[in-house]
Amino acid sequence: MYDLDKVIDRKQGNARKWSNQVLKEKFGLAEDAIPMDLADIDFEVAPAIQAALMKRASIGDYSYSYVPDEFYQAVIDWNQRRYETHIEKEWIKLTFGTVSTLHYIVQAYTEKGDGVLINTPAYNPFAEAVEHNERKLFCSSLINHDNRYYLDFEDMERQMQENKIKLFIFCSPQNPSGRIWTKDELFRLAELCLRYDVLLVCDEIHRDIVYKGQTFTSIWNAHPEIAQHSVLCLSPNKGFNLGGLKISYVVIPNQQIRETLLNQLQKNSITSPHVFAVPAIVAAYNESEAWLDEMIDYVAENMQIVYDFFAEIPEAKVMPAESSFLVWVDVRDWFKDETDMQEFFRRANLTMVVGSYFVQDGEGFVRLSIGMPRELLLEALGRIKKEYVRSMEYV
């Protein structure tokens, strides 16, 4: 058993999410605000990871490092054990965070003016990786049917044909909704990419947090041919809260596709790994699985508390999540616009992410991060309830 109820002072560690300076300058909030915006968790890190980093820190050498065999073996074993995905050492490349990696991927496989497709609503850095590199961004809106997202296969096929799409950046599980795509959906998606020669870049970094009773299928296990026509982006950052170490890796079976990205990484001088990256990921994958499973169950209980809470607010509708620690709430019947929404949360002394951040199709929604000790969650929900009751008095 791990003490996930323990509230740690993340301000001491200069956590961006909890920084008094950020809370004041970005959100105009006081020091006692509860942040629910950034997609990280507020639990103390798994003991094995902390021990591994303390052991490495005790060695008075923080110069350039290399990637040892134990890193590759940890990745291979984790993917086989957890996801029944076969990976070979030569396919793996350690990188420095998924967001920066997406920029390198866009640079490697497309030219200026080429079309890149994403589904929306989408994590905004997907769009930035395209537009900041002067590629053309095309968006295929997810279908919101009965408060659940679905892929629009007809629209995706049309866009691949008409816009000469070169690259498809796909999020699985989906951020911000936590939707897990079915094996059939992934097969159909892979078929489209193969038919129109679109390189599929699959971001699966949220897959480590999947609730009991739900089944996550990696894209490679959905279609026998897509592994040779795709780039898989993986990271322990979401499941084990290691975002500050900038740990991520790509897996690319196709030698030509792999060498193209490796050449781009060399152009950008992406060489030595972070000195703490390997100890952290090895400890996460080899020694922290029990902690992860317990944390997932805890977050699932948090999610149920959130469902029950918003069920009492008729103007809000929570999209049921199947993974992650993020809550996607439809508030179109609650607030007249995002300014009204932001002012409400400011008065409640909470942070959140407005739906317009997610490129398009997110207007009228809010994303809340609930991977936190129960005490903090209940306090945050209490603030929402108090402000809701107060605001209703003036209606």
From TrEMBL:
<keyword id="KW-0032">Aminotransferase</keyword>
<keyword id="KW-0663">Pyridoxal phosphate</keyword>
<dbReference type="Pfam" id="PF00155">
    <property type="entry name" value="Aminotran_1_2"/>
</dbReference>
<keyword id="KW-0456">Lyase</keyword>
<dbReference type="InterPro" id="IPR051798">
    <property type="entry name" value="Class-II_PLP-Dep_Aminotrans"/>
</dbReference>
<dbReference type="InterPro" id="IPR027619">
    <property type="entry name" value="C-S_lyase_PatB-like"/>
</dbReference>
<dbReference type="InterPro" id="IPR004839">
    <property type="entry name" value="Aminotransferase_I/II_large"/>
</dbReference>
<keyword id="KW-0808">Transferase</keyword>
<protein>
    <submittedName>
        <fullName>Pyridoxal phosphate-dependent aminotransferase</fullName>
    </submittedName>
</protein>
<dbReference type="GO" id="GO:0016829">
    <property type="term" value="F:lyase activity"/>
</dbReference>
<dbReference type="GO" id="GO:0008483">
    <property type="term" value="F:transaminase activity"/>
</dbReference>
<feature type="domain" description="Aminotransferase class I/classII large">
    <location>
        <begin position="51"/>
        <end position="384"/>
    </location>
</feature>
